[in-house]
User: What shape does this take?
Amino acid sequence: MMDKEIVISVKGLTKKFGNFTAVDHISLEVHRGEIFGFLGANGAGKTTAMRMLCGLSFPTSGSGMVSGYDIISQAEEIKCHIGYMSQKFSLYENLTVWENLNLFATIYGMNSKTIKEKTDVAFKTLGMENVQNVLVKEIPLGWKQKLAFTAATLHSPDVVFLDEPTGGVDPSTRRKFWEMIYRASSEGMTVFVTTHYLDEAEYCNRVSIMVDGHIKALDSPARLKQQYHAKTMDEVFRIVAKDAKRSD
Amino acid sequence: MKNMIDIQGLTKRYGKLVALDHVNLSVSEGCMFGLIGPDGAGKTTLYQILTTLLSPNEGSAVVAGLDVVKDYKKLRTEIGYMPEKFSLYPDLTVDENLHFFASLFGVDVKDNFDLIAPIFDQLKKFPNRLAGALSGGMKQKLALGCALIHRPRVLLLDEPTTGVDAVSRSEFWNMLATLKEKGITILVSTSYMDEAERCDCIALINKGKILDINTPGKLIENTDKNLYNASSKDMYPLLEALRTLPDIKDCYTFGATLHIVTNDSFNPDNTISQLRQRGLKDVNIWPANGNIEDLFIKLAKNDG
Amino acid sequence: MSIFQSLIKKEILHLLRDFRTIIVVLVIPVVLLLLFGFAISTEVNNVRVAAVVEQHTNETRHILEQFRTNTYFTFKGIIPFDEIENILRKGDADAVVIFRSELGELKHQIIVDASNTNMAQTSTAYLESVISSATGIPVVTNTLYNPQLKSAYNFVPGIMGMIFILICAMMTSVSIVSEKETGTMNLLLVSPVRPWTIILGKLIPYFLLSCIILTLMLILSYTVLGIPFSFSVINVIWITILYVILALALGLFISTIASTQVSALLVSGVMFMIPVVLLSGMIFPVENMPLVLQWFSCIIPARWYISAMRVLMIQQLPIKYVLTEVVVLSVMTMIVLVLAIKKFNAKK
Assistant: This one.
């Protein structure tokens, strides 16, 4: 893995809101095609850190590169090379499945021919050919989730950021969703994902655990389990995060 | 031991959709009973009937010896309910919420504080914080406290830990265990399989039907014997290749490995060599122990 | 399709699929206009009048004849003096006129039910004018600009002032905030779309909607309500467009401070709708307000807009009479637009 190209690299990234340090000098590197799990308790600073990587917010100090662009001076370029899926599977409820995909594809500057080709393939793999013209508010949650992921990855970004992409979804649906993540990763896409479900941490190539704004642990799930003499990632997390002071 | 919850032939329809289809279920007193099922299985409808918020179309449900339709007024003082969504007043403080819910049931917070004291261990440090400003785990604890303030005999929890981090979840379940020791019957639904294993008894529910009821141990015993782990550096191609092979009934992602459900004629070594021919060189296959999750996947699959 | 087009298309689809809103938005202006124009007119028809006559003369006969034939009155007959209180109390008549002769000269007294002051004043005025014209001392009242004294006229500018705030400020802010709530705003912000494009993509559909409504209202005003048509309509249109832009900027500004749809509705409702109705001169003339409120009304955009519309639509005066209003509206637009964009662009 070490010989691979580095897609995300962050050094001493810090974000302060007044006296409160939400993210405190975090450093990490993520390689191309890697599935990176960004774990942490509620309020540990995950969302704030992720927003900085997506160019939605500027760090107070520290530096970072995403897909070869600087997160401070080239935020707009970064936006062209990443995909983002929010924890609410945000899509336009009043638009149809196809209209949603088409809208996001156009926003990412794809022309109508490429959009047609890509969406045709996507609908086929999702088995959603028959619901193209159904309003998004009428499809089940699990489909919305897959659709939101497709919308975030249709433009083949270098990195896709997934903010708790499986919240409130049942195990069998979550499993199918991870298959989509595997596929994306096998196509060379880097996946940066936050989750509350620690069994899902096992799907990741490497994970980091954030506690009170710091990264307290960073390694592959297998090595972390070894290091903390734990059987599951759940145990690892409990050991690492047990001293957390902050909770929001 | 008598039954705290007794459900017979319970059916609820919304127009054409059958949310609950002749459900039979009984929960004995002091039991921690888990309700496991995918989204849209009918769990929330069941909770709404048990909490007297909905009336069933057919069948009967008796909770704490009281019928949910006939004795609904009396029943409401016997149950504590925590809905799926955080349902406290975010603009009231911790204390104000607690006192408000106590006053709804005509009880004094002091009278029953012993019951919720362990839950409030952390919360009592900031009684004047607004409920909306609490973290996910804290909110959950406050909601549990409010559901318990009138000392109910039955606690009905609808996915209480969704969206809560692992540490808070584990604390929450420790509290439930304490409550159970105090004799409170708990019916809890969850989508976390590790939580399911902490229940005394589990009902698997899908599409409005109960698929199986048993202890977690018994359920796991009944999982497929022909279950294997498979792993490789490139998981996705492996998954795709395995699905095309004969002898393999199902294959799905399972944490760091793939789980494969096979026929009796399956031979790991043959499969590995078949995969090698397809260019997958570093495949490992070894037997796996099934758990609730495997069972759940099997049941959900059999049902379409 | 360009990014911009697809953003606008998306917004239009939203509007079209939200059937109830679009109906409300198109129907409310029309209903309000017709309601104020006809039903809630301050004109008084059918004043029920009774008379007490001491002694019939030619004059009294002539006046009573007027009461019988004039469409503004319904004559309830001649009653004895001690019936007056009874007939008014029962509500069988709105006014009673007492005629008595003194030294050969006809004197009259009007007793009117003033439980509705507006109606009482108007009916007294009607009665006075009928009686005085009959007695040969006509009162000459000359009304300018609104010769038929149609109250519908007065309401048109007020309703326009209100509707555009409603549609532009309220609907834009609610639609932007709802995207914040569903999280789709974040998706747009992490995409390569510039914030400017997102803003315009939001504002232009509502601008177009406002133009449709403006056309609808102008057609109604100049036809059904019968406001005299003149070339000042060009001025009406461009000043309205200026006002619409101001209202859109206000909506954008509200959306940057509100985080939920409910708060956006409350802010736009409380901060803009209520002052528009109360302080803009739509119902109560600004000139009659206490000085402090008059000053306060100066910061309400609708006050300036409505005053300009009065001058242009009803008085039909040329543009130079509304220069102050136009300047104030333009300055307000600039300030709000700059503030809103600054606030929208601010990174957290």
Summary: Chains B and C do not touch (no CB pair under 8 Å). Residues 166-181 of chain B form the longest helix (16 residues). The longest strand of chain B covers residues 3-14. Chain B has two domains: 3-221, 227-302.
